[in-house]
């Protein structure tokens, strides 16, 4: 941590700051310049609050020089991690395809979508039973009935299940049905939920908040990790910007950046990023080419009847092209499609 | 609702769209232009999903022409509402000052802050017992012990209490202690929490999400209203933009815009918007001048020791100026400072 | 400047960095921590390029601790400046109203608008003869014919003129007609134009770029100042954000922030910020209340016939209210309406 | 165009709107609904100003249903275009690599960088002689001396040259030296410059403004096209968002979106998007995988000595990997690396 004093700071201001720092057991090195005095801190600064230091008289700025997340950081864990979801790997050696319907609507629709997913090379099934919707008048998901459908489809297809959980109190129930818990973008800073999924003993798919910085996203992962769960997969799903041509702006740079800062696997959701069917394949290619460890994609047997996000779901005629992407691109990145590993 | 067909749309495409619309009991008026065909819908369109229509063959765009929020909209409720918090009004006739510490730390600190608030003209006390923090290593609030401190300070000062609740399961407990429940920016789309506070029988202070559009913010209020609670106060607290000179960017236009779209009162949080003490007073003046029905402000007796957001809290020497703002500005807007009404 | 070395940096890396720094005549203080080494620089760092240092082996981050703008900074010029435009002051002691039509269309329309402006208390006339328009098919302004109209209206009303110039080569011509040159938001980083207006010998109204950070805005002012012209007035006019309810998002915090960082006057354009007539008065009040040294407002005698931005122009029936704002608000901020000074 | 009347609109309001529309020679179809009246316009609406209509009494909203850009739109020109730069194609059949130094510094540095570019498969040389810099104290480019160096290097390497021009008055001089003119992000709405390059008779590389919407970007291209020049290549180079982990946020979705809206080729600048060397290759792969028709990349023989943007330049040891990207990825997209075509 570096404390920059303002030009108006007196020796007394500097001395007070140094005192506060030292009383927290941290060493302070003072460099006096022509215009500014800089106080460099060395030691364990976790007990020092940057914001409070910034509020002290004479202080102009406080700059952190180490990362605030520890458990998910790559600094102390240089090797990238692989998370296993009921045997399916997500990590540096593979490109995993997770696919399925945005929302579970009926047993038939879910099974049909799962078959589509499988045909395209998916090794994990996604599907929402609890849907966070902007409008209280929109379809909110089938709840536990949806979880039962998912479990039944898993039995028939062999695909482990990823599903979203939206409330801390639902975590035990949802975890009892599924293989991986998803935390959605609107709950990216719902800390109670993060702690609950951290304690649930299942891998977690953590979507980036639509306006989360890289650091906030990793701090959200740290909340999960702190409860003893390091099986966290980060998922970039588009951020909110001024551009309205797409539903969100896919921040494809987030893939290599997050992989350098954290050891956790990083995947991409091209369906929710773009919000348009015609963007799903180009963005899937881009994600994998940028190094993503997987993609999660909406598919629907009859999207015009979908109760949620139909316009972004891939349909039957797209599956061949998706399968081709999954076959051609991973090897160029030195990766295998996850399907190959599990067969 | 207006459906715009693309230049490639055939008569069959148009007929299919019209069929879907009519089967939902809605009338469809078709206007054929040189380049485009437009289908205007008349009737109750709540059962039609814009996104699904957009996914139909030949459809280029679907535009809503009425608001998706009904209960909080000003269209059906032209007169602006006043919400009463244990007798204290927040609404079009007044400018209410809510003040107190960001976090409840000790009984002494809370009481001192409440006295400061009162000296500046506050008629409601703010104070956090449950603190959503970006870092799992930061102070997370005292929980129920904090609520007890707040209740005790209310008894000694007579100030009704506003406090944040962060999890649906905590709502009954928190509601049993306090006068108004606050939903914070990170939970602006935590729909389970919104429904829980909607059912709790206490007025709600709903902060805007840091990346919520005007429509998303009002839809969040609609979630609360739909559970039978129309005592909702909207609070603008800064949005996330590219600018880093301030912690967030206060969207002061949101005050008149929200007041035109909704009948609910709208207040501003200048402390969290700017994140800097020296901005609190200028932004408070700006908020009131823009027509805000109140402001909510951090004050702290010893901000350099604050466990949360110390650098943005007003201190003793700022109170005279704040009191002056509360005295001078409301009359220019045809409003009274709320204090005057309750004495 | 502070250079933070990465955890992987060797002693050789640090030595190389120190060598580069010292060869630029700057002192380097090295603080070795447990995880990081920090190099604090003291001296004249203007010859060091932060970006190049950041590219050196072992360097993790380079942080500037002093401002990159010198001439417009308040650090070396603590007293806030007043700019005089043909006798009309813009600065800390006053609130100046600049008003007029967005675009000069006809002599009658311009004269009528100028009379409206004057009736509301304006002491400077705005009006565009060169209009930068998003579409090549939109009205682009009358050019020199418009300047002649403005000069004629100045003669009849006594109001000095502010007008936009969009190309460096037009600066001498425009400067020969008008009292103050405006640089628009789309040219906020058109450095050739900034240098040309810097050399023209007339005061400059510098609008903030729609995505300019505070620092970029002040650097644009520095370009003008560097050519010997310190008569620069900064104008906040709304920034680009995700919110679409308003044309731009007025960053009202920019007023006090820019006034703390720079000695230059800061005014606000509420017309272009909101893009809606019904927001102009609330945002004008907010701007003045935040401490703005003036506001610049579109007025039009017949806005439904306006060739540019009609929907945001104030009309006859708004003028009384605007005049009242100019009378009531400045005294609360310890300021005078500029009109009073010039009469 | 569709005009939505507000719930308060009277029959007289509707009649006035219809009158204005019809007097512009456009047909108006009125649909009266329960809550709203909608006026659909059919015919040539280019003479109607949406903003002015929006300002009329009773009007709630005006929605365009056709694109405002005509010449660059794909609607009237379904086949995607190929632009040839002195024989080198940029278009749907190829992936073109443009590489070179950010700034021309010396003959040696430029020649070395050109050799590096060529080794990696580049068929066009980039290099800046006029550099728009945020700070007036930063290196601004060598000007005409830099152009001479570029021309000399072209003679020695055979690589046609792309260079930025920053002022309209410089266009004839720059065009006399180089093969393709670049308009930079800060000049994306410098309309005089756009018109000047439109008239210069050379292909144009048009970077997207850092806060330009898709529509504004295409309107900028329309400015060039309107002067008779359809040899325009669009270049996505990152947009400004809240995320600070990268210099800009590469909007990779802009590639397929722009290609659907416009027939012009679309390339990507991964160097300026990310601003970091370690992101250049991942983002290049992502861009090509998303369907980009080329990439433009900074290379520098000695980046630690670069006068501009050294930290983002690729170095010698990166070239093999870049060449491999150019060899492996284009075939997966059904494209050829442009090099193959020109040999």
TrEMBL record, chains A, B, C, D:
The keyword GTP-binding does not apply. Gene3D superfamilies: Aldolase class I, Phospho-2-dehydro-3-deoxyheptonate aldolase, domain 1. Residues 1-66 form the DAHP synthase ferredoxin-like domain. It is an enzyme of class 2 (transferase). GO terms for molecular function: 3-deoxy-7-phosphoheptulonate synthase activity. Residues 87-327 form the DAHP synthetase I/KDSA domain. Its EC number is 2.5.1.54. This is 3-deoxy-7-phosphoheptulonate synthase.
